[in-house]
Design goal:
Order of helices and strands: EHHHHHE
Strand order of the largest sheet: 1-2
Low-confidence stretches: none
Strand content: 5-15%
Radius of gyration: 12 Å
Number of helices: 5
Structural class: mainly alpha
Mean pLDDT: 92
Shape: globular
Largest sheet: 2 strands, antiparallel
Helix content: 40-55%
Length: 71
């Protein structure tokens, strides 16, 4: 099972738009939207950039389903 990316929560809590995050990360706004809606999972490199931009650890950026949960 794939992790859930918490990009939207962190981005909104910092008052940033998708376009601002995308520009700082060097990716498209559409890609940010796809990450936020869990339609795609960012690469390790992009994940590191996003975490740095938002001032969080990569571990905080993703939530892994609990072992044994039914998702």
């Amino acid at each position: 099972t794939n992790p859930t990316c918490e990009l939207r929560r962190f981005r909104m809590s910092r008052g940033m738009t998708q376009a601002e995050v995308a520009s700082k990360a060097g990716i498209s706004r559409v890609y940010v939207s796809r990450i936020e809606s869990n339609r795609t999972c960012p690469t390790i490199g992009i994940s590191l950039k996003l975490a740095q931009i938002l001032g969080v650890s990569v571990e905080d950026l993703f939530v892994w389903p609990q072992v044994g949960s039914q998702q």
